[in-house]
Amino acid sequence: xxxxxxxxxxxxxxxxxxxxxxxxxxxxxxxxxxxxxxxxxxxxxxxxxxxxxxxxxxxxxxxxxxxxxxxxxxxxxxxxxxxxxxxxxxxxxxxxxxxxxxxxxxxxxxxxxxxxxxxxxxxxxxxxxxxxxxxxxxxxxxxxxxxxxxxxxxxxxxxxxxxxxxxxxxxxxxxxxxxxxxxxxxxxxxxxxxxxxxxxxxxxxxxxxxxxxxxxxxxxxxxxxxxxxxxxxxxxxxxxxxxxxxxxxxxxxxxxxxxxxxx
Length: 263
Ligand code: ADP
Ligand code: MG
Known about the structure:
- The protein is an alpha/beta fold.
- It has helices spanning 48-56, 80-86, 103-117, 125-136, 144-147, 156-170, 186-199, 239-247, 250-261; strands spanning 8-19, 22-33, 37-41, 61-70, 73-74, 88-91, 98-102, 149-150, 174-178, 205-209, 223-228, 231-236.
- The strands form three sheets. Strands 6-9-10-3-11-12 form a six-stranded mixed sheet, with helices on both faces.
- A hairpin with a 2-residue loop joins strand 1 (8-19) and strand 2.
- The mean pLDDT is 90.
- The structure holds adenosine-5'-diphosphate (ADP) and magnesium ion.
């Protein structure tokens, strides 16, 4: 489906990046418009998490070429915090545990720092609690999780739901979910997918990074991309995910060998 006049939220061109001196991203191109859901699939080690971290501005990853344009501005030189405030949200494959910091406090600080940067007044503790309780419904989370240390002792599924809760509060313009489906049983997967679907709107966009087709039966992507060796080597509609489910990723090697042979 072509959505006319949609505005471009993210434009990645020729992006190369390295970590610890090893070049991982080898020229990624991707354009994401408002209202779109993109899935990035690929084998383990193909560079998916690296791509998500580079988008979020992780300091360990060094961009060596190309550009990342977010809402019309090159964000390569900006700090991760600035990107978050501008509306980029990354749900980590492995969410951090922070003992001693309550989940509620963490969420309030994150929420307030965004308000502050928008020139708005901070929300007080009581109003914030009301707001969080509204959002808890989206991920069907028990309020007791708010009082616990951030992610400490949370099960895999609870951590992932907590990431979606953060997203529900921060209402990012671009949400990148890195393997949010991994380690989830079917009930948790449905809750997470349902939350993502409730949060998707014509004004925002999502990049779902996933190894499996499973999540995409609950969240329907507009585009599916296959990453291999740090590049997007194939793009298509949602049917591409089903095709991958059937064929696995082995065809990539054949195609790559054929490509080299014809050079
Ligand atoms: P994916 O998320 O697709 O499984 P990653 O982006 O995590 O892939 O990893 C891509 C490649 O980068 C892998 O070969 C991985 O070993 C390598 N890599 C990731 N992080 C580092 C690091 N800190 N130092 C060296 N190599 C890394
Ligand atoms: Mg990964």
